[in-house]
Design brief:
Length: 355
């Protein structure tokens, strides 16, 4: 792991949302107060209980499979998002990962900042907000991110404290890696592609685990846990402990994603939008915060390997449907967010769209 430029020697100053909460601040510091146009609506969130929920066990039933594939196709095309139940990840493994996250963020700041860095290329990185070097405004979240596939190549770099972290988070990472391979196959099939299309890229691709803590916020109407954005990769599989995630619908309404027992959230990322040549769209989402609850989430972000370039699938490009996006790689995305303020810069995928 790199230890040079970008490594932070100390984050003990109150730049961490968790630290500020432990200090008992009664107001949000100025750097967390968003411009009025970017603040969350103070009205109660609109709960859309019609956001798609897919029963993956139905794919094993020849009578139910066609209908389930249609549901997946519609969810990918119209929303870019769905939840999955009967997905094969044991509830005990999901709970164990959340327990490990709670224990990690309960550690002292000194113990957590062993992994602190503002270099987005670090394979293990603890931080706060988004890009605290470039961003004018900060966000009410602490996180630890780490590469996770293949697990044997990265787990020795993960936190050794709390003692359960590697075992519990590692078990979850392995289960989700298996799940995302299955999900990619059905998503590709729903596009009319061979389920094994890009099999090597999927199996040898990157898995980045982002473990997030959104502490209770004294003035949640002024701040966000994360700003509106789409994920860079192919699929993101998300586990959330309570309400907070919101997705943007086609009418520019923010919809709160309900917590469904033992479900996992699947979000389409920029790579799938590009690969589908715009047939499917990556989902724009944000995270709101609460004055009462601390929220945890574990996002498993999947993409092709770091420097692997990808563009629209050849089968989805013809004279009537010319390629609408430039090729890009995970590294291109990391370079982009390293040099831009996520609040003011355009979405990364918009830089790839051909005129």
């Amino acid at each position: 792991m790199q230890t040079g430029e970008g490594k932070i020697s100390s984050m003990a100053s109150p730049s961490s949302a968790v630290t500020l909460t432990k200090m008992g601040v009664s107001h949000v510091p100025q750097r967390y107060i968003l411009p009025a146009s970017h603040r969350p609506n103070t009205l109660p969130p609109f709960m859309n209980h019609h956001l798609p929920i897919i029963d993956l066990s139905s794919l094993q039933n020849p009578f139910l499979r066609p209908q389930t594939m249609d549901e997946i196709r519609i969810a990918c095309k119209e929303v870019g998002f769905f939840q999955v139940i009967n997905h094969g990840v044991p509830p005990s493994v999901m709970k164990g990962a959340l327990d490990a996250a709670v224990e990690f963020f309960d550690l002292s700041m000194e113990e957590k900042t062993v992994h602190a860095s503002d270099n987005v290329h670090e394979p293990v990185r603890y931080g706060t907000s988004m890009n605290q070097v470039k961003d004018e405004f900060q966000f009410w979240r602490d996180f630890i991110k780490h590469y996770s596939h293949p697990l044997s190549s990265w787990i020795h770099l993960w936190p050794s404290n709390p003692p359960c972290y590697k075992e519990k988070m590692g078990s979850y990472a392995k289960e989700v890696q298996v799940l995302q391979k299955q999900l990619m196959e059905v998503v590709l099939e729903s596009l009319g592609l061979n389920p094994n299309y890009l099999q090597d890229e999927v199996e040898s691709g990157s898995q980045v685990m982002a473990i997030n803590c959104y502490p209770a916020c004294p003035e949640p109407e002024l701040a966000l846990g994360m700003p509106p954005h789409s994920d860079f990769g192919s699929l993101t599989v998300l586990l959330q402990s309570c309400l907070g995630l919101q997705v943007l619908d086609h009418h520019n309404n923010w919809l709160s994603v309900p917590v469904v027992e033992d479900a996992l959230i699947v979000q389409l990322g920029d790579q799938l939008e590009v690969m589908s040549n715009g047939e499917y769209k990556s989902i724009v989402h944000r995270v709101t915060v609460s004055s009462e609850k601390k929220r945890f989430s574990i996002a498993s972000l999947h993409s092709w390997a770091l420097e692997k370039k990808m563009g629209p699938a050849e089968k989805l490009v013809d004279q009537e449907h010319p390629a609408s996006y430039e090729e890009f790689s995970f590294k291109d995305f990391l370079d982009y967010i390293s040099n831009n303020d996520i609040m003011t810069a355009k979405r990364f995928i918009d830089t790839l769209k051909k005129k």
